Amino acid sequence: MTQTISLDSKVPTGPIADRWNNHKFSVKLVNPNNKRKFTVLVVGTGLAGAAAAASLAQLGYNVKVFTYHDSPRRAHSIAAQGGINGAKNYKNDGDSIHRLFYDTVKGGDFRSREANVHRLAEVSVNIIDQCVAQGVPFAREYGGMLDNRSFGGAQVSRTFYAKGQTGQQLLLGAYQALMEQVGQGTCELHTKVEMLDVVVKDGRACGIVTRDLTTGEVQSHSGHAVLLATGGYSNAFYLSTNAMNSNATAAWRAHKKGAAFANPCYTQIHPTCIPASDEFQSKLTLMSESLRNDGRIWVPKGIDDNRPADQIPEDERDYYLERIYPSYGNLAPRDVSSRAAKRLVDSGHGIGPLHNGVFLDFSEAINRLGEAVVRDRYGNLFDMYQRITDENPYNMPMRIYPAPHYTMGGLWVDYNLMTTVPGLYALGEANFSDHGANRLGASALMQGLSDGYFVIPSTISDYLADLLGDPVVPTTDPEFASAEAGVSDEVQKWLSVGGTRSAEHYHRELGKIVWDYCGMARNRTGLEKALSEIPALRSEFVTNVRIPGDTSVNQELEKVQRVADFFDLAELMCRDALDREESCGGHFREEYQTDEGEALRNDDDFCNVTAWGWTGQPGEPSKHVEPLEFEYVKLTQRSYK
Amino acid sequence: MQLKLKVWRQDGPESTGRFETYDAVDIKPDMSFLEMLDVVNVRLVESGRDPVTFDSDCREGICGTCGVMIDGQAHGPWKGATTCQLHMRAFRDGDTIVIEPWQSAGFPIVKDLMVDRSAFDRIVASGGFISADTGSAPDGNEIPIPKPVADSAMDAAACIGCGACVAACPNSAAQLFTSAKLAHLNLLPQGQAQRFRRTEDMVETMEQFFGSCTNHGECHEACPKEVPLDFIALMNRDYLKSKMKNRKLAGQVFP
Lengths: 641, 255
Description:
The complex is a heterodimer of chains A (641) and B (255).
Chain A: H1 19-26, H2 32-35, E1 39-43, H3 47-59, E2 62-66, E3 84-85, H4 97-107, H5 114-134, E4 149-150, E5 157-160, H6 166-184, E6 187-190, E7 193-201, E8 204-212, E9 218-222, E10 225-228, H7 249-256, E11 261-262, E12 267-273, E13 296-300, E14 317-318, H8 320-324, H9 334-349, E15 358-361, H10 363-369, H11 371-389, E16 398-407, E17 410-411, E18 424-426, H12 444-464, H13 478-495, H14 503-518, H15 524-544, H16 555-579, H17 603-606, E19 608-613, E20 622-627
Parallel strand pairs in A: 1-2, 1-10, 2-6, 10-18
Antiparallel strand pairs in A: 3-5, 4-5, 7-8, 8-9, 11-17, 11-19, 12-16, 13-14, 13-15, 15-16, 19-20
Chain B: E1 3-9, E2 18-24, H1 33-46, E3 69-70, E4 73-74, E5 96-100, E6 109-111, E7 114-115, H2 118-125, H3 147-157, H4 164-168, H5 175-187, H6 195-209, H7 218-222, H8 230-245
Parallel strand pairs in B: 1-5
Antiparallel strand pairs in B: 1-2, 3-4, 3-5, 6-7
Helix pairs in contact in B: 2-6, 3-5, 5-6, 5-8, 6-8
């Protein structure tokens, strides 16, 4: 199936600071009494999904919300630790909406839309207010005012936080707002169901097909619009900081129904995670970036140094971030810090039993502030570290190494968050829009909530207004019947393979390929190798995987469908990485680097978004390009020195 | 390490369950408890048997999805940790480990070690929120909140909704869960307008699903976030007050 894909970004014109306001004025509205005539389906209950579902239900739309978790509160937004940015300038340190906008465009290595990022920065202040009103217990100072801390990639303190559990508290705020609507009957909640297809009729998204993970029942749901807030695809790497169940299936199935997938090669490798310890590891654990406020990162100057950290004298330590990037030091952005760690580990300076990490050292902070203050700031993170590694970070430095954490790529959306399929929207990490080629710390929570609380409630009416009076497409329509049949056939196909290896085995093998060739550094030879190895492994996977059991509760069946989609998506990631012949942000092609080993952009040929269309076969996508223009932030070589 | 697992297997909510014994061989002390179960499950799948169904997601102790009884203790032997945070160095080579699901009428068994905790969502839906529709908020610094109050609210809000409190309670009571949500919202100035309505609604919804509290304190011992018992006292006090405050003509209410 080949669709015509047009990438009309619908970015408003005019002075950048007025664009969002002008746009809100220019969109069509649905009057309050008519809102209840529209049904909106929301898939996913993380920050973006829960915020959107709650806000749309408050406005009076009929909302149905779907999650594969047993409760909306379990979405992986809950695991975000560090904080959320807001351009409040409460610290009087020179922050402003324009500065947050500037930092985010620059931090994204000039590969995002200026207008989107400016809107995000504007809305950031409303998000903080909204969350406080809902009772999010942000950290306070003794005078009762909100506290802030600094974060990577910024020279001001604009990050609001709730201990090391900011994501949890923000998600609980959105979840509670959602549950209020569920309790009032304005929003219908479906838990333990997985979306397996988007239904498109006459070129418009008109519903979804789900599978009930408890009963196995395949069901259709129709709506006037479908919102996907289904997160990112870091689990294509197998080992990542994402949750075990985080997957790309909803986004990928939407892609197969005509939604273009943008910049899949933009993946973020977070610099501070606990290094892998053995081959049975099921996931990697993030240590919040906020630790870099007080921790100093170093490696031994010598090669293969096996001495414990406390026996390495000060003059034999290389505090490489402070050395290379004196003005940002340990707060250099994530992509820059991760690559620096990789360079040092690759050149033999790695520490720990497997020589696969660098030190994050708090001894200086403990001497300066005292252990009690450090415990107050980071106690829960230190405890978490100790439980996993059996090492006490108050006495010896943490061992850390970069790990896949976030994906900037995702479904292509216009300024209204609509994908290339009319009526189908993508929110939060599932879309590609605001972070360019690299996301700054404390910006994911901001973007998820921005999309959910403030953007979609204002933009969705522009589409719905034209549908006034049209009933939803009934689930008895042949389009639904054929989508349902497709899902049931797929389930039966997996149950009848009868091979010898688990889905887990193939996921792990796939992850190794993606990490080795499409991880922190990529090159043509490696990517070409990946593009031949992935299809080969896939053909073994589809004939040799073993799925026991039946269609009722069956976690292996859930997994195999997700792994199958990761195969296709991984191939597209590699193809995109091969196609983008430059380095930018999280996409580092070894062929394109400065003399100092930093990312070297090619603005003449690649100052654009690449959006890929599905043509019916993985490996044969159609390529579409949206040019990016920079009027307010000058294109420069990023420098954090 | 070589271990024996005695695992509760049950096909569905109405089925009769049974213990089955599995060998967990070549287990490393650095594995997490759930990674150990993953290894056992992969071996079961690849030898043509049905793997053990258990819930887990974030594997870093924050989502509240995982949770089983390990040798009779909710989330196992480590204090202040979820099942996914427990590591195998807590056990000794040759140990037999008994693994069971949460047991409470309020949490029907779905399959094996997986239970249905939707009763918790119903308690929240009945009042566990501050009504502040999107867009209606004043500036975040408009209402100063004393740091100790914000910190206490945060201690209460740390609850992850895993259900260990109910599983550990001899009465299957959900007081610790409910009181944590109430304390989070009732302590904050923003939560005052709905304080007593919220308390009455949440407590009464809780009682439809769960048993009564008789102050054993097992919930706090099992709680991976170590939510304090004091919140139950606060809830009881607010519930009593709510019976007088929730009157149409009571006017402005103060704590």
